[in-house]
Amino acid sequence: MTNPLQSKKVVFLDLDGTIYLGNRLIEGAQKFLKYLESSGIQYYFLSNNSSRSKQDYVQKLSGLGIQTSQNRILLSTDGVIDFLVRNQVKDTYVVGTRSMKEMFKKQGIETNSPCPKYVVLGFDTELVYEKLKKAALFLLDEIPLLATHPDMVCPTPEGPIPDIGSMLALFEKATGKKALKIFGKPNVEMVQHLMKKHHASPREVAMIGDRIYTDMELSNRLNCDFFLVLSGETSPQEAARLPKKPALVAENIGQIIPSA
Ligand SMILES: [Mg+2]
Fold first, then answer.
1. Is residue 195 within a helix (H) or strand (E), and if so which, with residue range?
2. How remote is the CA of residue 229 from the centroid of ligand 1, in Å?
3. I need a labelling partner for 36 at 20 to 30 A (CA). Which of 13, 15, 233, 260 fits?
4. 142 alpha carbon to ligand 1 midpoint, in Å?
């Protein structure tokens, strides 16, 4: 049987749980990227984790032995910023890290406006109660809420920790308000422009990741192949129970490399 990777023009790669877990590179990741490069397959790293900037990701990957550039990195934060820029929004209240706010400021967007047009929720690993309070009061004032991504938890070597999906539940309990728009995987807007750029049809694209409700869901919405890696969130038992089978299931990304 031929490996479905060989017919691909563009590959989208999840990071957490697929390329690395915490500060540990996943087996075969470097070899896999070398294979893509030698085969002329374009690739991009996708992360819903909005606590870091693109520069942070380039540095993190470099520390793990993967040299890459910012234009290969797609963050959920990009979708929010694009949306705000397109709608000429300058005033927001951001619940997010300093790294995330820097990305907004570079585009001339105020992140602590007294009269925000939107409240923006990112993965805030620097959260303090004052931010929750301010955001909740803005929501009660009918300021709409945007969220960078829907993930309930973020995988770490110590176990899953609360992420934005959990925060959205908190705000809904406290204010009755839901997010107006949620960016990041599985929102197809995150990658569609790149498929266009590379003239790639869904058949010529694969999404590789460890999570069903974001990575696999994105592939379903794009109608492209999904390669599931078991190096992160999904267990072999869960993979076996999936009603729709991924095009490929591998223990780790290194095992997706076609054998010569
Ligand atoms: Mg992942």
1. helix 189-197
2. 9
3. 233
4. 33
Q: Give tens-digit pLDDT for 183-193.
A: 999 999 999 99
What is the longest distance spanned by two Cα atoms in the chain? 61
pTM for the full model? Answer: 0.87
- Centroid of ligand 1 to alpha carbon of 17 (angstroms): 4
Residue 133's identity, in one-letter code, is K
Domain 77-182: which topology? Rossmann fold (3.40.50)
In this structure, are residues 201 and 4 in contact, taking their beta carbons and an 8 Å threshold?
A: no
Q: Which two tokens stand for residue 80?
A: 């929010």
Question: How far does the centroid of ligand 1 lie from the alpha carbon of residue 92, in Å?
Answer: 28
The encoded tokens of residue 89 equal: 């929004």
Superfamily of domain 4-48+185-256: HAD superfamily/HAD-like (3.40.50.1000)
Asked if the domains 4-48+185-256 and 77-182 are classified in one and the same CATH topology, the answer is yes
